[in-house]
Each structure stands twice: as structure tokens, then as C-alpha cells.
Design a protein that fits this description.
Number of domains: 1
Number of strands: 8
Shape: globular
Structural class: alpha/beta
Pfam families: DUF5994
Helix content: 25-40%
Order of helices and strands: EHHEEEEEHHHEE
Distance between the termini: 26 Å
Length: 161
């Protein structure tokens, strides 16, 4: 995941027109040649649209991961964005934007979108980091009772694991 995008509607062409591709692609693929998206996430879109004075191919597929957008440059470099659903509440969207752009984030788009509030986002990321840490031999350093052996996640009073 190279970043995140929170469009306000499910009209792909209108939302792409408002997206700042120069800022998005700084140091990456230029100019944009093709945009691939999950066809079920958007209203029907044409096969091509004009972006930044260029004709850009729009390819919708059902087999692409939901909530993602792939921006492909003429040199075939690719930028993959998490697409936050338009109807997402502002606090959740801000948490998703932050989580998707966090260095070292290894969660998929589906895992990020499935987390519906700040706690579950932080919990999912902490659990993922803890699993990586545990794989590297970190479990032995955890004080007894602080780690749930069934879930592999930090136990938090009042919160289910």
C-alpha cells in the first residue's frame, strides 16, 4: 500500500478529476497511463478519461482487491492506494488515512477497511507488529499474563481479544 485516498462519492471520473496527481506521484510513475480499480466499488465509468490534459485508460475488474486503486505510469511503475469508502465517518477515515500511510504498514486494504474505529485500527496494527515480533523470538520477554496465548495480542481491560 503506497498511500490512501478518501473520495467523497462513488463517481470515479469526477473524483479522479479532483485528485492532485502531481502531489500523489512525486518521485513515482509519470505521466499516468492507466488506472485499475475494483468495478464493484464505483459507478459505471468510461474506458478512458482526460486527466491533466492526457487521455488515461480506466480498467475496472472484479478480481482486483476491493478498496484499492492502482495508478500505472507510462514507464509501468505502479502506485497502489487504499480507497476509503465515500460514506465512511470522518474520524474513521482520518484513522485509515494515517494507518495506510504509516511506515512499515503491512495490513491489506481489506484489513484496514474492516477496522471500523481508531481502537480496532490500532489493535490490528499492534497485533500484526506483535506477531512479527513473536516470530523473531520476542515472546519470551513478555511478562506473564500480558499476552493472550489464544489471540497473540495484548490483553486490554474491558476490551475483548
Amino acid at each position: 500500500m503506497d498511500g490512501a485516498w478518501w473520495p467523497r462519492t462513488d463517481d470515479l471520473v469526477a473524483e479522479l478529476a479532483a485528485l492532485d496527481f502531481e502531489a500523489l506521484q512525486r518521485g513515482r510513475a509519470r505521466p499516468v497511463d492507466r488506472i485499475m480499480y475494483n468495478i464493484d466499488d464505483w459507478r459505471p465509468a468510461p474506458k478512458r478519461t482526460a486527466l491533466g490534459g492526457r487521455s488515461v485508460r480506466l480498467d475496472g475488474y472484479r478480481h482486483l482487491p476491493a478498496h484499492t486503486l492502482s495508478v500505472v505510469g507510462l514507464d509501468r511503475t505502479r502506485l497502489v492506494l487504499l480507497v476509503i469508502p465515500a460514506r465512511t465517518e470522518a474520524a474513521t477515515a482520518q484513522a485509515l488515512l494515517s494507518a495506510a500511510s504509516r511506515p512499515g504498514n503491512e495490513l491489506t486494504a481489506a484489513e484496514l477497511v474492516a477496522a471500523t474505529d481508531r481502537y480496532s485500527l490500532e489493535y490490528a496494527q499492534n497485533a500484526d507488529a506483535l506477531r512479527r515480533w513473536d516470530d523473531e523470538g520476542g515472546r519470551a520477554a513478555v511478562p506473564a499474563g500480558r499476552l493472550s496465548s489464544s489471540a497473540g495480542a495484548w490483553a486490554t481491560p474491558g476490551r475483548p481479544i
